[in-house]
């Protein structure tokens, strides 16, 4: 059985393959909730040698200065004795490396692919899995070495950039810190310990490793550090003896180096009493045991993250919608169901459940009165124009008393001015309805995955709205024409048709003037035409007040009501006439949405599988 660490390795690898490895969102990803071990140290502190000692194989690039320029996520998988060891990169999933010199070259090449052949760094990790009988199940993250100065070819910010990158890992409470410090350096000046102390002041997440013990000056040792007197941690310090450069040049294999390291501690007068707790083999086992115990302790929180993410993914899939069925009948049902969903959203806008429908009332309450108020009746009913219209209506026989034909012509022509506001009202309602169709399509969640059907619904709805507009326009104009065609006679029966006569003193409008003081009315003077203009103006105002009530009724009846009742009726008829094979075209999905659903499904399967396997392994290992 692979155990908890082996299972976590697989889960982390699967998370990474799906791009689910942290960064963004309020919910921690599964990757972020899993414990990891970050290897931290200054440049040339011996980090690479420690990692290779743990693995038991040469596989890391070497050189002077900054060699590790991208994080290396190293997953170790213990295999059966006698099996061949090999390595796999996540970015080369179908290639298996058995020659570890090629692994070293691929790490260097993959680093250069992002950073170029420079000394710059990148936070994008390289993922490497090693399968070997010589390793224990373990996951380690090798980070760029901390430095104090930028060298030639590096940006001035490189020191801070590296520290920020390292902090992005070790700040996480699930991260175990493997702090590497060389023995020939005062522990008080150790970059790794300094950083570990800042992010883990209690020392419960930190393991201290002292390298290069064999290079200390004669007569000195690192016992104060290894025995926890110089700097106390809650976990034990471990001493390591790295391969010398001469050993590396002679290509002394790691197994021989391990044996040499073991002999060094057992024979050392300073460290013999600690020999059983020193060396790379002990370090690997210590870390593996600790990592497994941490994982076991974190199982409840890991499971909680998994369950919450499963709920969110299933909710997202419900929103995105399941994959479209291939059966034509099911496809037709889906199309009609989506149309009904759109129709519900559209009606909610009109009925006030969503914003937008109130703009139609704004057309009636503000735009229509404002348009009527701007009509040029003052110019039209000027004395000069009234005299002209009346004279033209009289023809060759001037009127004797009241110019009836002049009145009718002034009223009929004047009322035609209301055609403009009537048409503008219908057009404004049409524009609001079109906008509500556009918004409703965008707000219908189920439709978002089908751009072809969205376009078809938009086209059908707008064609229907165009028909409703024509009906509304003809109805509104008919209201105006009816008023112009048949004026209300009763309005004029009690109206004065002559200009008021002047009294003897020359003042107009004298009450009960004596008969001898009355003077003849001039039926062709300005006062007479002014009276006509006043009467016509009052009648037009009365009709205008009535049209401000009836034009909205026409728009609502012909446009709004019909949009609610039969917006997609014609579309349904067209759908019913389509061949069965044509339904699939309407349900063509946005490729981005298809990719989103596929990723959701993969993540959902991963999380469900992880939950089941974690539960199974946890119970079998003694939960």
UniProtKB/TrEMBL annotation:
Cell location: Cytoplasm
Comp. bias intervals (Low complexity): 501-511
UniProt xrefs under Gene3D superfamilies: Dynamin, middle domain, P-loop containing nucleotide triphosphate hydrolases
Chain ranges of the Dynamin-type G domain: 31-300
Superkingdom assignment: Eukaryota
Pfam families (alphabetical): Dynamin_M (PF01031), Dynamin_N (PF00350), GED (PF02212)
Residue ranges of the region described as Disordered: 491-523
Gene Ontology CC annotations of this record: cytoplasm; microtubule
GO molecular function, one term: GTP binding
Keywords from the named record: Cytoplasm, GTP-binding, Hydrolase, Microtubule, Motor protein, Nucleotide-binding
Keyword Cytoplasm in record: yes
Domain (GED) ranges: 529-622
Family from the record: Belongs to the TRAFAC class dynamin-like GTPase superfamily. Dynamin/Fzo/YdjA family.
Name of protein: Dynamin-related protein 1E
Organism in which the protein naturally occurs: Urochloa decumbens
């Amino acid at each position: 059985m692979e155990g908890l660490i082996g299972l976590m390795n697989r889960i982390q690898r699967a998370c990474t393959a799906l791009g689910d490895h942290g960064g963004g969102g309020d919910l921690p990803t599964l990757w972020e909730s899993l414990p990891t071990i970050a290897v931290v140290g200054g440049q040339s502190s011996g980090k690479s040698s420690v990692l290779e000692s743990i693995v038991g194989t040469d596989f890391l690039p070497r050189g002077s200065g900054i060699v590790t320029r991208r994080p290396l996520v190293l997953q170790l998988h213990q295999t059966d004795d006698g099996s061949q060891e090999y390595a796999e990169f996540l970015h080369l999933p179908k290639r298996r490396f058995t020659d570890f010199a090629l692994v070293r070259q691929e790490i260097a090449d993959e680093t250069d692919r992002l950073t170029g052949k420079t000394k710059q760094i990148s936070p994008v990790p390289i993922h490497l899995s090693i399968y070997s009988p010589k390793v224990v199940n373990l996951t380690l993250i090798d980070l760029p070495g901390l430095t104090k100065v930028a060298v030639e070819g590096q940006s001035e910010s490189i020191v801070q950039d590296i520290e920020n990158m390292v902090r992005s890992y070790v700040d996480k409470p699930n991260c175990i810190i493997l702090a590497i410090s060389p023995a020939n350096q005062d522990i008080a000046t150790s970059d790794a310990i300094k950083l570990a102390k800042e992010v883990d002041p209690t020392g419960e997440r930190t393991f201290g490793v002292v390298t290069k013990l064999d290079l200390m000056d004669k007569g000195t040792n690192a016992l104060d550090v290894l025995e926890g007197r110089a700097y106390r941690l809650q976990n034990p310090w471990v001493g390591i003896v790295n391969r010398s450069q001469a050993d590396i040049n002679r290509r002394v294999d790691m197994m021989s180096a391990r044996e040499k390291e073991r002999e060094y501690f057992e024979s050392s007068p300073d460290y013999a009493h600690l020999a059983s707790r020193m060396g790379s083999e002990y370090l690997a086992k210590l870390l593996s045991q600790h990592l497994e115990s941490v994982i076991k302790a974190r199982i409840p929180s890991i499971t909680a993250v998994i369950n919450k993410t499963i709920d969110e993914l299933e909710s997202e899939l419900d929103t995105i919608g399941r994959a479209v069925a291939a059966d034509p009948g099911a496809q037709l049902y889906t199309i009609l169901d989506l149309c009904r969903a759109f129709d519900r959203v559209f009606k909610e806008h009109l009925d006030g459940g969503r914003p937008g429908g109130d703009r139609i009332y704004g057309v009636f309450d503000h735009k229509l009165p404002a348009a009527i108020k701007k009509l040029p009746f003052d110019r039209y009913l000027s004395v000069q124009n009234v005299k002209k219209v009346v004279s033209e209506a009289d023809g060759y026989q001037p009127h004797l008393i009241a110019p009836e034909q002049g009145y009718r012509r002034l009223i009929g022509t004047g009322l035609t001015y209301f055609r403009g506001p009537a048409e503008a009202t219908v057009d404004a309602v049409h524009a609001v309805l079109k906008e509500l169709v556009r918004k409703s399509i965008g707000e219908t969640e189920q439709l978002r995955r089908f751009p072809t059907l969205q376009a078809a619904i938009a086209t059908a709805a707008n064609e229907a709205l165009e028909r409703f507009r024509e009906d509304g326009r003809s109805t509104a104009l008919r209201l105006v024409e009816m008023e112009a065609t048949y004026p209300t006679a009763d309005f004029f029966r009690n109206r004065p048709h002559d200009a008021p006569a002047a009294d003897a003193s020359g003042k107009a409008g004298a009450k009960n003037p004596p008969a001898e003081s009355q003077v003849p009315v001039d039926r062709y003077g300005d006062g007479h035409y002014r009276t006509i203009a006043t009467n016509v103006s009052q009648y037009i105002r009365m009709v205008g007040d009535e049209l401000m009530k009836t034009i909205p009724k026409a728009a609502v009846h012909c446009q709004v009501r019909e949009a609610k009742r039969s917006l997609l009726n014609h579309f349904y008829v067209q759908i019913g006439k389509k061949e069965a094979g044509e339904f699939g075209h309407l349900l063509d999905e946005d490729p981005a949405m298809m990719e989103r659903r596929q990723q959701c499904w993969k993540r959902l399967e991963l999380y469900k599988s992880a939950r089941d396997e974690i539960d199974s392994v946890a119970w079998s290992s003694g939960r």
